[in-house]
Amino acid sequence: MSARSVAPTGWQSVGTFTVQNGIPVPPKPRFPLNVPGLYRLRFANGYVYIGQARNLEARLGNYVSPTDGTEQEHVIRYFLLDAGSAEIDVIIGPQFGTVTKPKGLRKRETQEKKTAIATGDQLVKAGRACSREYLRWKIKYHEDMLAKSRAKWNAGTQ
After folding, report:
1. What is the pLDDT of residue 5?
2. Cα–Cα distance, 96 to 103 (Å, whole number)
3. Are 141 and 78 in contact (CB under 8 A)?
4. Cβ contact 29:35 at 8 Å
5. Distance between CA 120 and CA 49 in Å, rounded?
6. Per the domain annotation, does 122 fall within a domain?
7. Range of the domain at 127
8. Which of 46, 54, 55, 124 has the fewest CB atoms within 10 Å of its CB?
9. Digit-coded pLDDT (tens) for 3-55
10. What is the DSSP string of 42-111?
11. HSE (side-chain half, CA atoms, 13 Å) at 57
12. Residue 99 lies in a domain
């Protein structure tokens, strides 16, 4: 199935992100994801994250192996590890252009977030309870980065 044959107007299920032995494991989607689009993670603990990416496949991979110094990737990975799993849905289609020249992602992301809030979803980074949870994982990220920096510093001074 090509990316263009996926309905561009609504969410399409990709599968479930699981956690095995403390490592996030993405699903094997039925269609290619190396395209721009929106993604929605519905965590098993009830939280929902909606984001956009130039390359969905690469972005979902960032939650398996976050890049150094990228707070958001680490925070969402901590949400996933804590919840144990997350259903993944995407919106892709020709209306978002190409990976090198995506268009309309931010506007559609904003619309989808407003819709999710209106339907009662508990969005990550929206609302008081979730803000506390987000802050919890943000602090963990900074503690982990500090510990990593200290270990590098100590290794270099001994």
Report:
1. 38
2. 5
3. yes
4. no
5. 13
6. yes
7. 3-145
8. 46
9. 333 334 589 999 999 999 999 998 887 777 788 999 999 999 999 999 999 88
10. EETTSEEEEEEESSHHHHHHHTTSPPTT-HHHHHHHHHHHHHSEEEEEEEESGGGB-SSSB-SHHHHHHH
11. 10
12. yes
Band of the pLDDT at 1, cuts 50, 70, 90? very low
Q: What pLDDT is stored for residue 141 in this prediction?
A: 85
CB 14 within 8 A of CB 27: yes
pLDDT at 93: 78
Residues 115-155 pLDDT 10s: 998 999 988 876 555 677 788 888 888 888 888 888 888 88
Does the residue 13 lie in any domain? Answer: yes
Residue 87: give its domain's CATH number.
3.40.1440
Q: Which of 57, 78, 69 is nearest to 145 (CA)?
A: 69
The rounded distance, in Å, linking the Cα atoms of 123 and 112 is 11
The pLDDT value recorded for residue 3 is 39
Query: How many Cβ atoms from other residues are within 10 Å of residue 119's Cβ?
Result: 8
